[in-house]
C-alpha cells in the first residue's frame, strides 16, 4: 500500500525549498566568515562577528531586538487574553467586535506604518491632539530616541493583537462548559477568569508567546517604514542593520547578522518550546 | 424601569464598541478622509471631513503618477500572487498528503525541515547569490519561487492536518479499482482537499500581496515594482503630497478588505490552526 504514496511527491517542493531556503541557510555560515562582494570572497574568520558585538550601532540593534520581541509578545498576550475573555462572554456584539479587532492583521504593514507615522506626529497628529484635549502632554513618539522603539512596538501590537485574539478565543472555546458552570455557581466573572479561563488557556498562551516572540525577533517592515531605525540608531533591530549593511555593500557582515539572528532565535526559542511542551495541559 | 434594564443589558457592548471604534476604526476613517482632501488640507493632518471630496480625482492622480507605476505594480502583484499561490497549493498539497500517509524516516526529516522553515529567518544575501547564479535575481519568476519557498511550511502543515481526516479506505478502494498512485492523488484526494485549499489560498494570498521585505531584496528596480514597494517608495517621492500617499494606502487596502468580507471564517480558522501547529 505504501507504493500508493510515492516519495517523488516531495520532489517539486523539495527542489524549491532546498534551493531557496536550505542551501542559502547553509551557505550563510561560510559567507558570514568572509569579506564578500558576490563575485569575490576573502576569508576573514570571525571578524564580522566581533564587529557586530563591538560596534555600538550594531550592539544596540541586538538589544533593541530583544526589547521589541519581549514588549510586543508580552502586550499581545495580556491584551489578547483580556479581549478574548470579553469576546467569549455574553456580550452581544462579539462577532462584530472580533472582526473589528482582527481586520488590521490583513492590512499591509507599510500602509499601517504610514498611517501611524502621521497619527503619531508630535504636534499635528491625532493621538497627541486627543491626549492634549484631556490635558496630557503627548511625547514625541517617533523622534524621541528613548521611546521611538516602544512607539513602533505599540503600533505592532495594534496591528497584530488580532492573531493573539483568535488563538485565545479558540483556546477558551475548547474549555469544557462544565468547568464554567461549576464556577459560575460559586462566584462571578472575575472568579471564572482567574480560576478557569486563565489557567486553562495555558496552551494558547504558549502559542501566542512563541509566535509573537519569533515574529518580534524577525521584525523589519514596520520599523523600516516608520523610523528606518532612527533617530540615529535608536530603533534599529538586527533585521534593519542587516538591510543597512547589505545596502552599503557589506555582504559578509550582513550575512553574519543573519547568522546571529538565526542563532539567537534558536537559542531563545528552542528552550521555550521545550519548556512549553513539558507544561502543556490536556483538557 | 425599562431604561435601567436596557442600560444594564447593553452598557458593556456600548463601552466596548466605543473603545474599539476609537482604537481600531478611527485610523481607517482617517485614511479615507486624508485620501479625499486636497494637497493643502491633507498637510494639516486634521481628523476632519474635506471641504470638497476629491477621493476619485486623487485616486486617478495616483494611478497616473510616475508614468502609471501603480498600475504596473498592481499587475506585477497580481501575477506574483496568483502564480505563487497556485504553485504553492499544488506543491504543498503533494507534500502534506504523502507526509500524513507515510510515516517513515524521510517523513520525519521533511517535518523537521518544515518546522525549521517556520522558525528560522531566511539568510538574505546568500539567497540573492543563489538566485543570481541561476539567473533569477530581480525577476518576477525568482520572487515567485521565494514566496513559494517561504510560505511552504505553513501550507504543508495545514494540508497534512486536513489529510488525516480523509479515510484511508478511500485510497484502498481507488487502488483496487485500478487507479495509479498519481490518479489516486489527482482524482480522489486533491478534490477532497477543497476546505484546506481555501484556507491556504486566502491566507497565503494575503501574505504574498502584503509582502514588503522580499520584493525589497529580491525585486529591486522601478519597472518591476510590486504594490507595497511602490507605496514605500512614494513616502519619499511624493514629498508631502499626503493626499496622494493616503489615496494609495486606501487603494491597496481594498483587496484585503474584500478578502476579509468574503472569507473571514477561513482566514480566522486558518490563522488559528496554522498557529497551533507551528
Description of the structure:
The complex is a heterodimer of chains A (283) and B (278). Chain A has helices at residues 11-31, 47-54, 56-87, 94-102, 109-119, 126-133, 148-173, 177-186, 189-200, 202-217, 221-226, 238-247, 251-279, and strands at 34-36, 41-43. Chain A is mainly alpha-helical and 283 residues long. In chain A, strands 1-2 form a two-stranded antiparallel ribbon. The model of chain A has no long low-confidence stretch (mean pLDDT 89). Chain B has 278 residues and is mainly alpha-helical. Helices cover 81% and strands 0% of the residues of chain B. Chain B is built from twelve helices and no strands. Chain B starts with a helix and ends with a helix. Classes of the chains: A mainly alpha (283), B mainly alpha (278). At the A-B interface, helix 1, helix 4, helix 5, helix 7 and helix 10 of A face helix 1, helix 3, helix 4, helix 5 and helix 6 of B.
**Count of helical segments of chain B?**
12
Strand content bin of chain B = under 5%
**Structural class by SSE content of chain A:** mainly alpha
Q: What is the total tally of β strands of chain B?
A: 0
Q: Radius of gyration of chain B over alpha carbons?
A: 24 Å
Low-pLDDT segments, ≥5 res of chain B: none
Q: Taking all residues together, what is the mean pLDDT of chain A?
A: 89
The termini of chain B sit apart by: 52 Å
- Runs of chain A in which pLDDT lies below 50 for 5 or more consecutive residues are none
Report the sheet with the most strands of chain A, covering strand number, pairing sense and barrel closure: 2 strands, antiparallel
Shape of chain B: globular
| Secondary structure tally, helices of chain A | 13
pLDDT averaged residue by residue of chain B: 90
Give me the strand/helix succession of chain B. Answer: HHHHHHHHHHHH
Helix and strand content put the structural class of chain B at mainly alpha
Distance between the termini of chain A: 35 Å
Output the strand order for the largest sheet of chain A: 1-2
Helix content of chain A: 55-70%
Amino acid at each position: 500500500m505504501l507504493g500508493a504514496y510515492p516519495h517523488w511527491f516531495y520532489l517539486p517542493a523539495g527542489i524549491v525549498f532546498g534551493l531557496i531556503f536550505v542551501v542559502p541557510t547553509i551557505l550563510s555560515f561560510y559567507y558570514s566568515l568572509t569579506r564578500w562582494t558576490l563575485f569575490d570572497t576573502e576569508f576573514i574568520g570571525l571578524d564580522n562577528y566581533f564587529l557586530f558585538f563591538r560596534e555600538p550601532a550594531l550592539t544596540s540593534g541586538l538589544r533593541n531586538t530583544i526589547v521589541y520581541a519581549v514588549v510586543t509578545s508580552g502586550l499581545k498576550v495580556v491584551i489578547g487574553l483580556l479581549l478574548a475573555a470579553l469576546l467569549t462572554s455574553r456580550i452581544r456584539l462579539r462577532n462584530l467586535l472580533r472582526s473589528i479587532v482582527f481586520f488590521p492583521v490583513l492590512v499591509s504593514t507599510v500602509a499601517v506604518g504610514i498611517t501611524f507615522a502621521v497619527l503619531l506626529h508630535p504636534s499635528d497628529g491625532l493621538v497627541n491632539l486627543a491626549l492634549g484635549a484631556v490635558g496630557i502632554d503627548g511625547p514625541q513618539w517617533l523622534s524621541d530616541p528613548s521611546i521611538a522603539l516602544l512607539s513602533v512596538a505599540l503600533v505592532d501590537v495594534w496591528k497584530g493583537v488580532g492573531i493573539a485574539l483568535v488563538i485565545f478565543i479558540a483556546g477558551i472555546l475548547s474549555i469544557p462548559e462544565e468547568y464554567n458552570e461549576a464556577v459560575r455557581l460559586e462566584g462571578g466573572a472575575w472568579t471564572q477568569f482567574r480560576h478557569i479561563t486563565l489557567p486553562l488557556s495555558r496552551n494558547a498562551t504558549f502559542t501566542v508567546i512563541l509566535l509573537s516572540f519569533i515574529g518580534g525577533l524577525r521584525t523589519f517592515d514596520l520599523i523600516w517604514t516608520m523610523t528606518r531605525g532612527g533617530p540615529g540608531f535608536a530603533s534599529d533591530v538586527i533585521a534593519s542593520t542587516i538591510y543597512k549593511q547589505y545596502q552599503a555593500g557589506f555582504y559578509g557582515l550582513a550575512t553574519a547578522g543573519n547568522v546571529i539572528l538565526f542563532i539567537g532565535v534558536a537559542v531563545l526559542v528552542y528552550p521555550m518550546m521545550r519548556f512549553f511542551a513539558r507544561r502543556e495541559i490536556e483538557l | 424601569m425599562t431604561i435601567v434594564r436596557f442600560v444594564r443589558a447593553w452598557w458593556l457592548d456600548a463601552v466596548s464598541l466605543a473603545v474599539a471604534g476609537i482604537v481600531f476604526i478611527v485610523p481607517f476613517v482617517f485614511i479615507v478622509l486624508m485620501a479625499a482632501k486636497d494637497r493643502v488640507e491633507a498637510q494639516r493632518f486634521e481628523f476632519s471631513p474635506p471641504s470638497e471630496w476629491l477621493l476619485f480625482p486623487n485616486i486617478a492622480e495616483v494611478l497616473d503618477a510616475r508614468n502609471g507605476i501603480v498600475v504596473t505594480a498592481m499587475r506585477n502583484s497580481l501575477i506574483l500572487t496568483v502564480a505563487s499561490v497556485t504553485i504553492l497549493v499544488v506543491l504543498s498539497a503533494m507534500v502534506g498528503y504523502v507526509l500524513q500517509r507515510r510515516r517513515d524516516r524521510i517523513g520525519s526529516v521533511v517535518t523537521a525541515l518544515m518546522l525549521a522553515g517556520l522558525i528560522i529567518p531566511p539568510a538574505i544575501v546568500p539567497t540573492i547569490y543563489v538566485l543570481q547564479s541561476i539567473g533569477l535575481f530581480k525577476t518576477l519568476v525568482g520572487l515567485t519561487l521565494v514566496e513559494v519557498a517561504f510560505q511552504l511550511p505553513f501550507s504543508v502543515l495545514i494540508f497534512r492536518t486536513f489529510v488525516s481526516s480523509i479515510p484511508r479506505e478511500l485510497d484502498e478502494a481507488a487502488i483496487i479499482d485500478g487507479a495509479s498512485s498519481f490518479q489516486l492523488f489527482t482524482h480522489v484526494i486533491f478534490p477532497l482537499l477543497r476546505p484546506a485549499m481555501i484556507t491556504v489560498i486566502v491566507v497565503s494570498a494575503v501574505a504574498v500581496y502584503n509582502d514588503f521585505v522580499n520584493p525589497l531584496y529580491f525585486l529591486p528596480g522601478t519597472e518591476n515594482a510590486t504594490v507595497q514597494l511602490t507605496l514605500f517608495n512614494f513616502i519619499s517621492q511624493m514629498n508631502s503630497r499626503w493626499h496622494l500617499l493616503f489615496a494609495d494606502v486606501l487603494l491597496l487596502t481594498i483587496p484585503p478588505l474584500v478578502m476579509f468580507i468574503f472569507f473571514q471564517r477561513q482566514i480566522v480558522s486558518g490563522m488559528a490552526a496554522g498557529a497551533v501547529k507551528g
